[in-house]
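LAB NOTEBOOK - FOLDING QUEUE
OPERATOR: T.R.
BATCH SIZE: 2
PURPOSE: Compare the predicted structure-token outputs for two unrelated chains run back to back under identical settings.
PRIORITY: normal
REVIEWER: second-year student, initials M.K.

ITEM 1
FIELD SEQUENCE / FIELD STRUCTURE:
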Amino acid sequence: MMKLRNILMGLAVLSCTASFAQLPDAATIAAKMYPGWNLGNTMEANNSGQNFTNNVGLGGETAWQSTKTTQEVIDFVKSQGFRSVRIPCNWVCGHISDASAVTIDAQWMARVKEIVDYCIGSGLYVLLNDHYDGGWVQNTLEDVSEATVTQNCATMKTIWTQIATTFKDYDEHLLLAGMNEPGLDKTFKAENVAALQKYEQAFIDAVRATGGNNATRTLVVQGPSTDIDQTYNLYEMSGITDPAGSGRLMLEVHFYSPWQFCGLEEDADWGKAWYFWGSANHVPSGTLAVRNTSSSYEESYVQSQFKKMKTKYADKGYPIILGEYGCQWRNVGNTVAQNRHNASVKLFHQTVNQQGPTNGIVPFVWDINVQSQGGTKGIMTVLNRSAKSVYCSYAMDGITAGVTSTTWGGPTSGISTVPFDRSADSKDAATFNILGQRVSPDAKGLVIIGGKKYVRR
């Protein structure tokens, strides 16, 4: 049985190396990708002091978490309903065998390729990036001198030429992302955005130049700090040019907002850590009332932030990758408060996964595979990879609830959702699913017939 499985998996991967053809565009692919999951704290580990060395090696995979990625782990991820895996990855930091030529270590490249193959063999989409990577480019965006920008662009092209060449035969299930969080926590000015887009242009040009399926592969560029507000206010897609033409790019932002609920582990001088999110989950009074999230940063805030991305980018042909989002799952003490916190975690994940696809956004939950809440500090772990089990059921249930209650792109003008009416059904009627794919006239669930949506039970 295992031998047969391996043969089938091999055929699935080989399908990525078929004859080169124009791949589906970004909008078509995005609609099939949600929800997404991050292989976090794994291939991007060891981000300190190892730039342009080969001192980390294959051991980096388990430096920040203990589970080596296997086909079984990826199959478990898929079994939870995820349709995409984002692989944060180091290349420069600890995996360069020749510093002068910026040559990526062959063993490291082979291991990354193996994990990509696990995902694609399981039928998942893959987003492969150059993550923080020791900050070799991410931390230099304040330096807009010609010498620095020229050098970084050259390095960007060298790195991505190697990666793109390795994967140029792969089909549309592989997407490449040039960076992670460029200039994180910095306040961008026009000149910083211009430098960022020069690096992104170098990434795009390098990938396209390798040919094969890379000529039309969907590529992902990052907004300033991957912050929604800075991206919306400063980033214009007209600042970069894609040799493949229109419809082949996505834009990436991240969402850990409000930080006091999502990521703040301990009280700071500027604010308290918040445990309760969503008005229905607030503690009405008592000492824990200071842990209620401000109503300005709850459900309506998610909706308004995501709507910005839709109107400026997704509606103009640039789907959005929400490359990371999540919130700390904490142990807050008494049962009543813990139940409200658990409900908050579920609601946050549910809201992101409702509002994301509605606004042309593919959400990828951050997941670090560490099973220790650390009391009120909390942890951002959803799945236990070693046990192949769900660690935070509240996050996972929220993701599932959000995805099952939304449609990609939101309501379509002129198409309404109505209970399924048998009189509208006939064997001659063209029946489509919500992705626009023709299906059997007997297909169940949400279908489109004659321009109207029906729920067929």
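ITEM 2
FIELD SEQUENCE / FIELD STRUCTURE:
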Amino acid sequence: MEATYLKYLLQFKRPSGTSRGVLLDKETFILTVSEQANKGIGECAVFRGLSFDDRPDYEEKLQWLCENINQDKAILKEQLKEFPSIWFGYEQAILNLRNGDHLYFPSEFTEGKSAITINGLIWMGDEEYMEEQIQDKLEKGFHCIKLKIGVDWNSEYTILQKLRQKFSKNQLELRVDANGGFSKDEAVVVLQQLADLHIHSIEQPIKAGNWDDMAELCAKTPIPIALDEELIGIIDAEKKKKLLEVIKPQYIILKPALVGGFSGSDEWISLAEKHNIGWWITSALESNIGLNAITQYTFTKKNPMPQGLGTGSLFVNNFESNLELRNELLRFKI
């Protein structure tokens, strides 16, 4: 078996705002493995400024993988444990090599018989831009919308109030994602305001790494709290277990590219379910290659909640995709 990689820069159609700043482009790496006439493709979807493996020797490690692709899988996993997005790409490439034809996890989904319900994501911006996005999602038939918050809370709160006045919690599920944008004291106030509006949940209200503060918030919160960035960089199984036992969140959010691929996600899911913690899966600005693999994996987990999957529509130079969105349902074209 041989392996090569290609660096690729995805360009946003429109600058996309989060509490960490405005994104103009997204660097990623495409891994190709080949064996005789067969090829497998995966995406090593590093997220600069967020991934645990955003480090200077990233490409060096990726080249090491290509040169050692025939090593035992256990050896590769140990060598790549601090490079979750590279391991994510490796898992995809090997699965695709085995299954071929854009397939990673063959199922009723890839046969075109079933679909996945997703939430509509609203990016940060001025009030007019956010309301424009919301109206678009509602017209397309979404019943679950997630808003990025934490930059201008007064404006964001006004938008949420308007939405809730128009649509009851039974008509529209609202989720918010703060990306660690609030202090602990601010979060206490915000959580109550969100509860008054019957918001489904909030992702990462305060910055990751403050376990005691997050545990206190989770213990007293009037709405469910979901951990997101908190999971990044937690590699050891015992530390994962300890994090869940200390913080006791209501949910965890799994981004395979950031938590060690499919095997890393499986480990988190197993621990969460043992502790009666809910979960759902979210993409992290992958190209259509990684998004396709994550979507196929997500279907196999049979979680009935709306999932946080992208649609590949954010970039002007994305790869061709077998995924298509019909209303709020993500489907695989055959």
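REVIEWER COMMENT (ITEM 2): The longest helix spans residues 84-99.
FOLLOW-UP: none requested
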